[in-house]
Amino acid sequence: MLRERCFPFLVGVASLCAVPGVARGDDAATAPWEDASSPTAQPTIAAHAYTLAECLALADRNFPNLWAARARLAFAHAQLEEAKWTPWFQWSAQSQFGVTPQLTGTVIYPQATLTNRNVSGLDGLLPFFGFSINGVVPLYTFGKIETAREASEANVRVSEWDMEKYRQQMRMDVRRAYYGLQLARDAKYVIDDAIGRLDRGIRGVRDKLSKGETGVSDVDRLRLEAYKQEVTAQSLQAPKGEAYGLAALRFLTGVQTSFDIVDEPLKLPDRPLVSVGQYLEAARILRPDVNMARAGIAARKAMVAYNRAKLFPDFGLGLGADFMSTPNAVSQQNLWASDPFNHFYYYFAFGLKWGLDILPQAARTQQAESQLEETRALERLSLGNAMYEVEKAYADATEAKGREQAWDKAEHIAKEWISIAQDHIDLGTWDERSLLEPLRSYGSARVQHLYALMDYNVAMSNQMDLRDDNPKCPNTWSGNTFNTAEPSNCVH
Q1: C-alpha 227 chain-centroid distance
Q2: Distance between start and end Cα atoms, the chain
Q3: Collapsing DSSP states into helix, strand and coil, what is residue 429?
Q4: pLDDT at position 254, please?
Q5: Does the first or last residue of the chain, that is N or C, have fewer Cβ atoms within 10 Å of its Cβ?
Q6: Cα(405)–Cα(78) distance, rounded to whole angstroms?
Q7: Which residues 6+ apart lie within 8 Å of 452 measured at CB?
């Protein structure tokens, strides 16, 4: 939007020096908007000027989408811990305590009836206490434990690459906002220079008209004033673009006050454009969406194996112990008498648990297999989309690079043209009107060069990062090999 709306003012900027030579003696004059007699309060504390690297580091720490992705990753890690420990904690314990009246007698000579268990008074009451624990240690589950853990581990990798995807999107947004802010400020400098030159030109024409010189006319003055108003109207787009860029960077970085960026112009990317094959290879290995799909396939495979294992039984070792003490009840010494009031025993036994929902479980296995095929298709989709985006970004970068080089040459040619014209004017062989075309050419070339630099930087940001410009993340291209460390090793 900034590019589309700022472009019309270029024609006015290019035409601002229709009669520039008449004002060469006024270069040191004070611009009309600069009133030396009106003092202005200077800020006592300047906002910190952040570099692009600092903005990216701040966004890594503060951007809300990354915090949400970190929370999802923490949730996946918690699920992994649950899958690791759940099979070994199939244990339960229970306890009971209270008071009972006196219960006398044995199985052979009973002296108390069922009604004697009811508490009807406070006399003779004594406390009782009981505790029991039991559980199962799995011995062989046909792979249920292993596949559940593998699925959870793959889910963690999916969440890791999901966080990396949002991180790369955020970094692209930061770069786009940063470059857009630089473009807006560069355009603002061009506009300010244009308005200053127009004001000097208008004053020069007025001075010549007041002296009665015939080389200029009121038409020249009106033309300059019309161009000035056009440039002034279009100049409002630059502050708006600057405000948009600052607002976006404040949101992305989390720095809401005293925020600014370093005052430097747009420049060429600090990394070269390499062959498209390297970008394609990097995308196959490092693209987050591709790796998410691969991790998803691993998770789905584990779920298929898990559901197939559930068709078979679980073998385990059952362990337990039970203790009960009731002082008011007579202990029974007969082995065949069940004594619910006084006892202590423990046990262990091998056991088998088998859910016989064979047909429903077979249907659940088919569901898992269908989800696996879906994820495989999504992997092909993500890989193909990655290849398309890389080739498209490469074409954009190649076009922007060529355009930047062409407009850079055009800018230098226009400067040389202006220099030659000015030399002829100084010698008196040409008049000031001879500067119109070279200045138009220079104005157009200068601003188009700025746009080409902006497009080139954005296009390069769209490409996979093939060098270690982010030392916090080891997923980089080094020489002829890739370091494919898991994104969980990156310090975000």
Answers
A1: 44
A2: 32
A3: coil
A4: 92
A5: N
A6: 53
A7: 400, 403, 404, 406, 407
pTM tops 0.70: yes
SS3 16: coil
Instruction: Let me know: does 2 contact 237? Beta carbons within 8 Å.
Output: yes
CB atoms within 10 A of CB 224: 26
Place 2 in a pLDDT band, splitting at 50, 70 and 90: very low
Tell me whether residue 256 is exposed, middle or buried, using C-beta atoms within 10 angstroms of its C-beta: 0 to 12, 13 to 18, 19 or more. Answer: exposed
pLDDT of residue 113: 79
3-class SS at 239?
Answer: helix
Task: Identify the three-state secondary structure at position 345.
Answer: strand
Tokens 């219960």 -> residue: 103
What pLDDT, on the 0 to 100 scale, is given for residue 432? 59
Q: What share of the chain is helix, strand, coil (3-state, %, to 5)?
A: 60, 15, 25
Secondary structure class of 130 (helix, strand, coil): strand
Cα–Cα distances in angstroms (integers) from residue 279 to residues 15, 107, 187, 285, 387, in the given order: 43, 87, 32, 10, 9
How far is residue 479's CA from residue 476's CA, in Å, rounded to a whole number? 10
Asked whether 193 and 212 are in contact (CB, 8 A), the reply is no
Going by the DSSP 8-state scheme, the letter that residue 428 receives in this structure is T
Q: What angle do CA 190, 404, 394 make, to 5 degrees?
A: 135
Supply 488's token pair: 């969980």
Q: From the CA atom positions of the chain, what is the Rg in Å?
A: 40
Helix 52-62 to helix 64-85 angle, to the nearest 10 degrees?
Answer: 50
pLDDT at 428 over 70: no
Give the Cα separation of 300 and 292 in Å (integer): 12
The residue type at 337: A
Strand partners of residue 315: 140, 352
Query: How far is the C-alpha of 382 from the C-alpha of 292, rounded, in Å?
Result: 9
Could you read off the pLDDT of 119-167 as tens digits, one per residue? 887 888 899 999 999 999 999 999 999 999 999 999 999 999 999 999 9
Q: Which amino acid is at 458?
A: V
Q: Cα separation of 460 and 467, whole Å? A: 12
Residue 344 CB partners (closer than 8 Å, separation 6+): 321, 322, 323, 324
- N residues, the chain: 492
Separation CA 397–CA 394 (nearest Å): 5
* Token code pair at residue 370: 């269908």
Q: What is the pLDDT of residue 190?
A: 79
Tokens of 203: 């004053």
Q: What letter represents residue 477's amino acid?
A: W
| Average confidence (pLDDT) over 66-90 | 95
CB 343 within 8 A of CB 322: yes
Report how far residue 208's alpha carbon sits from residue 214's, in angstroms, rounded to the nearest whole number: 8
How many beta carbons lie within 10 A of that of residue 483, not counting itself?
13
Identify how many contiguous H helices and E strands the chain contains and give both numbers: 11, 8
